[in-house]
Amino acid sequence: MYLTWLDSNSWLIEMGGKRILLDPWLVGPLVFGNINWLFKGSRPQERPIPDRIDLILLSQGLEDHTHPPTLKQLDRSIPVVASPSAAKVVRELGYHQVTTLAHGESFNLDNQVTIQALPGSPIGPFVTENAYFLKELASELTLYYEPHGYHAPVLKEMAPVDVVITPVIDMKVPVLGPIIQGKNSALELAEMVQPQVMLPTAAGGDVTFEGVLMAIIQTMGSTDTLRTQLAASKLSTQLLEPKPGDRVELKLQRRAIAKS
């Protein structure tokens, strides 16, 4: 299995001989609802569009996960698996093969990788977006991704999980509450699913953020803190911090415990 972090929540996952582009933001600024003064993400240079993409996987319909300028640059014939809100966006952009996954539903990618949608981040009072559980069928190695630190109890039934991509810090807006919760939930997740490898997402990288929202966001936690917590809990989980653009090979052991 190979992973390439492309900044923010954007990843290229290579497993089962397939190349899966996850929540891509690769070109142009990141803005919510065209309100530049509230929040704007920028990068010093655009990321190259990866070649030979077999699938685009989208967890949420918001711009930091379903980024219209990036999706306009990609081939509309690439299959897409998405949450209901993200599926609506890509269909409006002209994508031809869009599979919407509700919680509990699965998608089979060429009999090489299965993707199951789990409950993920709540967006307002009525929408809960997707987390994803991926399994490489030949090896039965697994990967779990949730970008805001909201992990459904059903995930415990899938333990152990080999690779976890999750935030490790908290980002909170006073009065409104957490945008991202990773400071405590990352350790709880590690204790729940006993991953071989954890990788942080949603923060850092070669990007800069500005705007009124960034001036009031409170950030807590760090990878160093989590690494200390993992050791104190006697977990053998390896916490990796790849640099943006680096293709990292994960040295994983097949486990005797059967996975669902």
UniProtKB/TrEMBL annotation:
One Pfam family recorded for the sequence: Lactamase_B_3
Lineage top rank: taxon: Bacteria
Protein name, per record: MBL fold metallo-hydrolase
Originating species: Trichocoleus desertorum GB2-A4
